[in-house]
Sequence to fold (218 residues):
Amino acid sequence: MKFFIDTASIDQIKEAKELGLLDGVTTNPSLMAKEGITGKDNILKHYATIAALVEGDVSAEVISTDFAGMIAEAKELVEIADNIIVKIPMIMDGVKAMSWCTENGIPTNCTLVFSGAQAILAAKAGATYVSPFIGRIDDTNWDGMELIKQIAEIYAIQGFETQILAASIRSSKHIVDAALAGADVVTCPLSSYLGMLKHPLTDIGLAQFLADYRKGNS
Ligand code: E4P
Fold:
């Protein structure tokens, strides 16, 4: 399973890279705004900076909601770097745009996916990745992880090649559950990856080993 970082923060991306955990990056307009990146030129420049920092795929999201606008943005985004993936929302014109991108060799990430039906459409449109939003489903008192399991089963039965990118991941438990449910990729903030490190028995065990070493070597 690949680890993508869900941020537009250069510091977080660099830290994940130093840990050796970085397989790719996902961004969205909200994450860009959080970093204070505004205006088309600055946004495109920021994507270029991120794409140069990582070897893996970098999802860059379109702002348009109509077919022609999405295609124009997709063409512009893929010019930035070879590892840019065009992130397109699961709406009617989005499906048309993803199909067009597939026919024209442009890789896509279908975002804002909340059902198995939407995931089937994304795969039929030839999306490279499908992004079901786990945490946001949990927020509505449904089980987001059940959706990952359902999509994994459908894709296996149907032989769809679209990769399942578990998004809106908020904890290390989500990461473990997504791995079990068959996700190909998880994307989350650095804090969720760092949370995976933690176990009290590791801390207690290490403290004991070091104390015993000091006793024997004092
Ligand atoms: C991923 O591509 C999405 O941008 C992201 O995971 C959404 O996460 P959120 O629900 O925490 O905003």
